[in-house]
Amino acid sequence: MAEIVCGSRATREINIEIRRAIAAGDRDIVVKDPGARHNLGVAVLAPVRLRFAGSVGYYCAGLSDGPHVEIDESAGWGLAESMLGGEVIVHGSAGNGAAAAIRGGTVVIHGDAAARLGVSMKGGTVLVAGNCGYMAGFMGQKGTLVVCGDAGDAFADSMYETVCFVGGHVGGLGTDAVVESPSSGDAAWLDTILGKHLPEARKRGRDFQKIVAGRKLWNFDKREWKVWQEAL
Amino acid sequence: MCGIVGFFVKDSGGPAEIGRTILGMLRALGCRGPDSAGVALYNTPDDGRLVVRVKLGDDGELGSRARQVSSRLESFAGVGPYSTIGAYARFSVSGETDLKRLTDAIESLDKDFEVVSMGRRLEIVKQTGSPDNLEKTYCVSRHQGTHGIGHTRLSTESRVDLSHSQPFWSHGYPDLAIVHNGHITNYHQLRRRYEQRGVRFYTENDSEVVAIYLAVQMARGASLREALERMLRDLDGSYSCLAATERELGFVKDTFALKPLVMTETDEFVAVATEEIAIRAALPGQYSVREAQVREVRVWQR
Fold first, then answer.
1. CB-CB: which of A35, A93, A135 is closest to B290?
2. pLDDT at position A232, please?
3. Nearest to B275 among A36, A94, A116 (CB)
4. Residue A171, SS3?
5. β-bridge partners, A193
């Protein structure tokens, strides 16, 4: 196991150290005292276990493909942004834009997520044990967004094919978001994935609402001008 | 950009080292705002006198200017011993509670004189440059008290000088001060409206209108919480804003959640900052930090 202590070191130096450890064959790396620094563990492309023993700042684990990243406390803006694959687990809360534009992999947030969770997702799975803030799921193209607690206002606005599940109350649906009943297959999938990643949420799949795009904004139709006026 | 911080000691049983903590937080956010740095710190206990901090100009001998202000104030109020440091003089005044009268008396003496803060506990110091510079000139870290707010500024639309730096005192309302990170997009409209009512603006910084707005709301009887909630209705744009009174610290986050603001609360203290890095740098220990949600308003009171 490699241990990297941040101390007074610059972010670049810490990231170089992480890469050096991976190149040397370490598969279990602990970064101590991260102190909410930005840009830690960005673009890690190997299937290693990378643990941050503390809080991280902006863009942690962004652009990564394959690692299992664990953050003991909270994360700042843009957690795992544009991630391609792997797992990112935050034991505290996440700031704005967590899991934005991810293409694959799984992001697990044990606390709450702030605004713009999972915007423009292109794949992957996002799981939140607590609540999520304003505009989660905006313009989601693919993938699945699961919030065990309450969702904020303008939820699932202008989506394509992202599928959302909310266990609590939805503060307000975004434009073209519609509520569906989850199928038995959906409920079984939720039970499995929550059992694996968020057992503390104590939620059963059948307790969730399913929210998808109403597809009204997918193609322009001047007979539906009013829908467009409201959307824009 | 810009960085804002706030620190509030819940029940210290005596003065706490708020200057050191707030300076530590500001240093961590120095890169978000290299243009200027400033703090608004709240003393404890107060002796009932008004503390008046006046900018006397950037050049020359301040002693004679301070004497000039002191003798003007003595003509209608009680004035204790005064001191000068950096670009400021600090007076303590008794027997006069009309803040406008005091302000006018001071500012009519010279066009460069500017009242920077007034209150029974509030002390504002700010200047161009880094938090380290602020410490060098004013020894902020030695300041003890109950709570305070701070700012590091990256100017986007108005001049870089002491007057345009933050925090802003809410002129006319004792002990009320703000720091703001963001843009108030209906600033010109609001400013015009206030100017028509005779309010003087000292700068072209849109953050000043936040200070004026809160002063007007609170002078009408609103609590700090109510005033911050009304901001969401009346001030457009993207903003994270901290405000403090002699007994309170509060924040508001805009209707789009476009500007960052994180917070933590323990049994001992509350810390709020633009980035968590500021809180972790200044406050060791175990606590959890979270981002404020859209339209969130919080106020802590002692």
1. A93
2. 62
3. A36
4. coil
5. none
pTM equals: 0.95
Taking CB atoms within 8 Å and a gap of at least 24, the contacts of A148-153 are A148/A194, A148/A198, A148/A201, A148/A203, A149/A112, A152/A115, A152/B293, A152/B294, A153/B294
B260 contact residues in A (CB cutoff 8 A): 76-77, 95-96
Q: Is B159 helix (H, G, I), strand (E, B) or coil?
A: coil
pLDDT in tens, A175-202: 999 999 999 999 999 999 999 999 998 8
A87 touches chain B (CB under 8 A): no
Q: What pLDDT shows up at residue B157?
A: 81
- What would the pLDDT profile of B165-219 be if each residue is shown by its tens digit? 999 999 999 999 999 999 999 999 999 999 999 999 999 999 999 999 999 999 9
Residue of B nearest to A38 (CA): B277
Instruction: Enumerate residues 6+ apart whose C-beta is below 8 A from B265.
Output: B287, B300
Chain A residues whose beta carbon lies within 8 Å of the beta carbon of residue B296 = none
Name the residue with tokens 């029940």. B11
Cβ separation A77–B257 shorter than 8 A: no
pLDDT digits (tens, 9 = 90+) for B141-168: 999 999 999 999 998 888 899 899 999 9
Q: How far is B57 from chain A (nearest CA, A)?
A: 39
B2 is annotated as an active-site residue: yes
Domains of chain B: 3-46+125-301 (3.60.20.10), 49-119 (3.30.70.60)
The whole-angstrom distance between A185's CA and the closest CA on chain B is 33
Residues 6 or more apart whose Cβ sits within 8 Å of residue B197: none
In this prediction, the answer to ipTM > 0.90 reads: yes
Burial environment of residue B31 by CB neighbours within 10 A (0 to 12, 13 to 18, 19 or more):
middle
For residue A80, give the 3-state DSSP assignment.
coil
A227 neighbors A157 (Cβ within 8 angstroms)? no
Record: contact B289-A92, CB cut-off 8 A: yes
Q: Taking an 8 Å Cβ-Cβ cutoff, which residues of chain B contact chain A?
A: 256-257, 260, 262, 275-277, 279-281, 288-295
